[in-house]
From TrEMBL:
Name the record gives this protein: HTH merR-type domain-containing protein
Pfam families: MerR_1
GO BP annotations listed: regulation of DNA-templated transcription
InterPro entries in UniProt: DNA-bd_dom_put_sf, MerR-type_HTH_dom
One Gene Ontology term of the molecular function aspect: DNA binding
Residue intervals of the HTH merR-type domain: 1-69
């Protein structure tokens, strides 16, 4: 596949795909004269995985570890991310409770 095909299929820009290639998240084959870059079909799976992990608020550094990790390491990384998200949700809920209690206090003090 060429970069153009990956852009159309994945929704990432050319620049993002080149960036992922430089980070060694994607493999590229250099073929022909003049040299053209061709990506194997598995690259599309990797791009979809990157997109899903970015949507789950993974950092690019964690995504790189995830893609290069073994299956057991991948489960560990996902659990760590779940814990981070859970802590964030707990903080949000605590803030919501505090705001609700402040609103109740204001309503009690005003006639």
């Amino acid at each position: 596949m060429r970069v153009k095909d990956l852009v159309e299929a994945s929704g990432f820009t050319r620049h993002a795909i080149r960036h992922f290639t430089k980070l060694k998240l994607l493999n590229v084959e250099r073929i022909g004269d003049p040299i053209q870059q061709h990506y194997p079909p598995e690259s599309l799976v990797v791009l979809y995985t990157i997109k899903e992990l970015k949507a789950a608020r993974f950092k690019l550094q964690d995504i790189k570890k995830y893609l290069q990790a073994s299956t057991t390491d991948k489960l560990t990384l996902l659990k760590q991310q779940d814990l981070r998200l859970y802590r964030g949700i707990k903080d949000i809920r605590a803030a919501q409770r505090k705001v609700a209690s402040l609103i109740e206090q204001l309503e009690r003090t005003q006639p």
